[in-house]
Specification:
The protein is an alpha/beta fold. Helix content is 35%, strand content 16%. The N terminus is likely disordered. Keywords: Signal.
Amino acid sequence: MTDNNDHSRRQFMKAATASTVASSALAGCTGILGGDESSGGEWRNEELATVTATSFDDLYQPDTVDSDPGTVNHLTWSGYDASNVQAPFRKKFSCDTSLDLFTSNPDAFARLDSGEWQDFHHATFDMAWLPNLAEAGLIRPLDYEQWKPYTFDKYTERFQKEEGYKYAFLNEDDYSFDVDGKMYGVPQRYGWASFAVNTNTVDSSDYSSYDAAWSEEYDVGIYDLPFWGVQIVMLREGIEPYKSHSEAEIEQIREATVDLFENATTVLSDIPSLNSALRNNEIDIGFISGSWINGSLRRGGDFQYQAHVPEEGSVIWVETTTMLKGDHPAVSDNYLAYMQHGITAKNLMWPTSGGTNVVPHQSAIDKLNRRQRDVLRVDDISEIIDRSVFYTGVPDLSRLISVWQDAKAQAQ
């Protein structure tokens, strides 16, 4: 992004904010959210205007929407499309939702940045992509105080501004995360990247460190996902992932990655292959893996498989929903509020299809039964976060991905 683009965007945001304030003054405080400008939805027709919210809990009520609710188009991850997540909203608001699923943050960003933002209203990215999305002028800010009853008031202590959670807020001078900055997204679902172990075959003293994946004592399968893989290699090597790296650090990462591939029994191309290799006892350790094994392995009762977080820690990712620029249907803000509702959040944790991961919503967590808590490892999460780092973006990721790919080729 160029400085000129950044400057023009700031000018636009100032103008949009002034327009919203002026429109709100003219509309007054009467009326509830609907499709016409007099009812508080004027932000819909301003390309990057701040998204406001009516008083709690108006946005849950279908009678606040006009006769043409429209269709909400959502670019997001597996699980959000589950019938128990989407069907209640569609029925209650007599509308449709269309979900386009992706598996790569960089690819999804490239799609939006190339013009596909026009096809969507909501997009859910890992939180490290908020600065990129905002600086590119693709997403709208949200009014924190107005949205707080629908969002942050529902979260656990870990996800409160007062406790330092900053990964939904940006300083608009440089688009860095800033707890006092502008709100650009809402946390929706989260988990961690680490490695998976079969606790029946790997000694606990060994899987207390990532070194187990470099050990000849175990059969190791490498999931060929360099995006996460290089980050976990850096944690193992004691290298800070979220900075530009020196030549010495790059070489250290390269050597460790070559050793990892040379020790591996097999290289696997996708999550189903990795999980199948674990389940069939073809491998003892899956590197890398993470909390996403909950749905495919642990939810089926195979509790011996664990996305373990060793002493070096894991990487915490937080899927964060944003509202894109451009026109929005009448139910767009109702949909955002609905996705943040405790019942919806609970269903997202336990979807009829797709990934099984925890959410930051305390009321949703409180609704889990004992088995669900065990599958999701809810009671371990506080300790996991304490030992981990939040994913905030790797500046030289492209170079490190090349290091991973070269190491794989060298080891073959």
